[in-house]
UniProtKB/TrEMBL annotation:
PROSITE patterns: HTH_TETR_2. Pfam families: TetR_C_22 (PF17928), TetR_N (PF00440). Gene3D superfamilies: Tetracycline Repressor, domain 2 (1.10.357.10). This is TetR/AcrR family transcriptional regulator. InterPro entries: Homeodomain-like_sf (IPR009057), HTH-type_TetR-like_transc_reg (IPR050109), HTH_TetR (IPR001647), TetR_C_22 (IPR041674). PANTHER family: HTH-TYPE TRANSCRIPTIONAL REGULATOR PKSA (PTHR30055:SF226), HTH-TYPE TRANSCRIPTIONAL REGULATOR RUTR (PTHR30055). It comes from the Bacteria. Residues 59-78 bind DNA. Keywords: DNA-binding. SUPFAM superfamilies: Homeodomain-like (SSF46689). One of its GO terms (molecular function) is DNA-binding transcription factor activity.
């Protein structure tokens, strides 16, 4: 089974999904290879500074200096440091989508539990590779654009996983209509996200016990919901 997650521009059939806020604060999109390389340097430098110094001490000047660029070059692409942080999250969430799709495609037998565990452990794998992301995301409420984009991403993840579960015959019940199943899927993703945030709150590698409990929490909920299929 080939799994393909939709791009950030796709809006799934869930009435509560808002417009994609991912370009908030972005001055212009890099079209040439040199510009794209500069943007990647800016994002990588910001991520390293977040890991070493935290989010609050970040400035556009420190990001530019770490990237080896004049601060004016940074302002060609980003309005402020919050826009840089949003771009880091956008990049890392796209990597999560690809990791989830790749890992689900390799699952030999798809069940509710394997769907949940594979997806959540794919997120964890990306958190390990991108340690700045979780720090930025846990601070998301201080950056409305990051928070809005994260919620948008969670709704999109929920819609894609629900579609896959329905296609595989796992998430169809007689008790809930389509809108209710969409709400159930979104709740499961939001609960899993919050549980993983707790697991990574004090441990950059994630507390293994809490990660296991997060997987069990979401899987048990969805298995109970779909037990009458």
């Amino acid at each position: 089974m080939r799994i393909r997650f939709r791009s950030p521009g796709y809006t799934p059939p869930v009435s509560s999904v808002a417009a994609d806020p991912s370009e908030s604060g972005r001055r212009r999109l890099p079209a040439q290879a040199r510009s794209r390389e500069r943007v990647e340097r800016i994002l990588d430098s910001a991520a390293r500074l977040v890991v070493s110094n935290g989010v609050d001490g970040l400035t556009t000047r420190s990001i530019a200096e770490a990237a080896g660029l004049p601060v004016a070059s940074l302002y060609q692409y980003f309005a402020d440091k919050e826009a840089v942080l949003l771009a880091v999250c956008r990049r890392d969430m796209a990597e999560m989508d690809e990791q989830v799709a790749s890992d689900l495609a390799a699952v030999s037998e798809l069940t509710v539990h394997s769907l949940v565990e594979t997806s959540m452990r794919a997120f964890v794998a990306v958190y390990h590779r991108r340690p700045a992301f979780m720090q930025i995301w846990m601070r998301g409420r201080a950056n409305p654009a990051v928070y809005d984009y994260g919620r948008h991403h969670n709704r999109r993840i929920a819609a894609n996983l629900l579609a896959l579960g329905v296609q595989a015959g796992l998430l169809t019940t007689d008790r809930y209509d389509d809108d209710e199943m969409s709400a159930i899927a979104e709740l499961a993703v939001e609960v899993g996200d919050k549980a993983l945030q707790l697991a990574f709150q004090h441990d950059p590698q994630g507390d293994p016990f809490l990660v296991d409990q997060a997987v069990a929490l979401v899987a048990d909920y969805l298995e109970r919901v779909t037990s009458d299929r």
